[in-house]
Amino acid sequence: MQIDDIRQKFERFRILVIGRANAGKTTLLKQICNSKENPEIYDGEGKKVDPAQIKESAERGEHNIENEMVFRSNPGFVFHDSRGFEAGSVDEFNKMKDFVAERAKTTFLKKRVHAIWYCIPMDQMHRAILTAEEMFFDECETGNVPVVVVFTKCDALQVLAVAALTTKDKELPEQERLAKVKELEESMLQKSTIWERLQKRKNPPKVYAEVKDMHKFNEGCRIVLEKTAAALNDESLEMLFVTTQSANIMLCVKYAVDSRKI
Length: 262
Description:
- This protein has 12 helices and 7 strands.
- It has helices spanning 3-10, 25-32, 51-59, 90-105, 131-139, 155-163, 167-170, 174-191, 194-199, 219-231, 235-244, 249-259; strands at residues 13-18, 40-42, 68-70, 77-81, 115-121, 147-152, 207-210.
- The protein is 46% helix and 13% strand.
- α1 (3-10) crosses α11 and α6 (155-163) crosses α8.
- The model has no long low-confidence stretch (mean pLDDT 84).
- The strands form 2 sheets. A 5-stranded parallel sheet has the order 4-1-5-6-7. It has a two-stranded antiparallel ribbon with strand order 2-3.
- The protein is α/β, with parallel strands linked by helices.
- The chain is globular.
């Protein structure tokens, strides 16, 4: 199937973003979409929503997961924010659960959710898995929609890794020293058993990605994109996702080389 046919079928790539307050969700999306501006918000019928109205609703503790976030810099992506249930609201959790169940299986392909990004901040590593995470990965059936855990704010791990360098490590050439820091970061993440515990839940995530330096597009953002593309179960969706990501030319090139379809 050609990309034009795929776009006509699915229209845009749709992602549900989940994560507690201050997990870095909006910052991540801005970097992924190469934007310095906040997204425009549309309701479920495609009508633009006044930001002031969104702010007023948020102040009243109200949130509509049906609302769509679209960045002008990359309108091929549509994001939904689950904000609400992470604070412990059972009502908001049920709304999110129903949303996932409906959008994961809807026959109206232009409204189907294609991937879920679950953001967990590493500057709160000691409380990475709370009731919200347990509820989601035990009770939320996502069907064929892949869940990618995004470990945000991994700079916190880097600080700990640098502090753990031995005197001998600090004397290594720069590239070797950086490689050692990366090795220590990965070791700390593994020792935290966060990923291992998530994998033991009833509905475990498919893959994870680590992101640091969140105020600029970098290696972490690229890995989020690559992991998402690899986690997709549909070749057409993979092509749609990759070609939608205008901020990452290397991902498009990699897909073209691997598949010879672009």
